[in-house]
Amino acid sequence: MEHEFTPQIQAILEKHFRHSAADIFEKSSLLQYINLKTVSATRGSKARSSFANLYAIFVLVEDYVQRNYHKGGDYSKYEGARFSALFKRQRQLAFGRKLQNHALNHRMNEEFKKFFPQIDITPILRVVETKRYWINERLLKISVGKKRFNTAPAILDIIKAYIKIKRASFETFINTCERLKSIAKEKGKEIETFIFGLLAPNVDARIFEITSYAILKYFYHNQKVYFGFQLDKIEESFLKLYKTGRTNANDGGIDFVMRPLGRFFQITETLDVRKYFLDIDKIERYPISFVIKSEEDVRALTHQLRSGAQKQYAVKAVVDKYMNCIEEIINLPMLREHFRTAIKQGYLRDIINEIVRQSKVEFNYEEASDDDEG
Fold it and tell me: pLDDT tens, 216-237?
């Protein structure tokens, strides 16, 4: 697979290996994997970045190089890198401060096997009891003819180049948001077009969740409900939407919660009914609203979910019970309409501010420094 970042990978390999670069790239499954994981390099801040799996590779290869195993020595006798040191290091890298341990422990290995089922090599090796980790050296050493090359330093340079591009892309995104904040009153149409660009099927899941939250927060912002335990003591309350945790996190959590109604919202980009009903089961089949990254009509989406449920469960009573737990489906056209409503209510600048604030938190923008790239 060749994409816009592939020539940069090839250029780095040529710098390290000259005329053998093309053969090394073709023979190295780890380089091919990195090529697949860097497809978003030039696709803007909204494209998926795949930092977790790349950083799992980076910190282990970096440990390997720092100990000069790329120059010689018996790596098989190395006691292994400590998990705590690797985990700390990946969180020091740009955009890595909130990364979890899943990639180091199993996800990178699982995805590698999915891409290269014919290769019987596990990239990340570990001993659970001692919490020691190794990169599989067999993936680093590539033979071309009678020569054997160690790709470790080149791999570090490739991932550093990817980080540099992604940081520049995200800085452009943030700068654009900041610029739009300053011209919100003069050029509202330009901001509307920009926000609509964040509500597209190909947008990074984190950016989509952040944008959805900002829009829904201010769409519901001035809506009132009335509560009370006694008829003569009814109190007026404004609806308030809370973001409950990290975006796109595989932590089993619910994305947004609305007070005082207690409505739950979940962001999704799939129509796999198992995912929907798993979310419903997590909260004991409490009603939940789904924000779906889809242009399809809400009725069509509902029909697809019901059809999927019927195939999976077959029993009408079970299907109805799950479907009745779906309080509302909000698709992309509805989000855009909610955004227009919020603009009319005067919340344009607030929405932009919220997107900027949440994005900086999500991507650890303010904590990043030039030293983070290793």
Answer: 999 999 899 998 888 888 999 9
The rounded distance, in Å, linking the Cα atoms of 342 and 317 is 39
pLDDT of residue 118: 92
Range of weakest confidence among 44-58, 103-117, 201-215: 44-58
CB-based contact 279:318 (threshold 8 Å): no
Q: In whole angstroms, what is the distance from residue 322 CA to residue 317 CA?
A: 9
Domain assignments of the chain as residue spans, ordered by start: 6-166, 183-362
Share of the chain above pLDDT 70, in %: 90
* Cα–Cα distance measured from residue 123 to residue 307, given in angstroms and rounded to the nearest whole number: 40
Nearest of 62, 123, 131, 140 to residue 96 by alpha carbon: 62
CA distance 319 to 314: 7
- Measuring CA to CA, which residue among 28, 29, 54 is closest to residue 40? 54
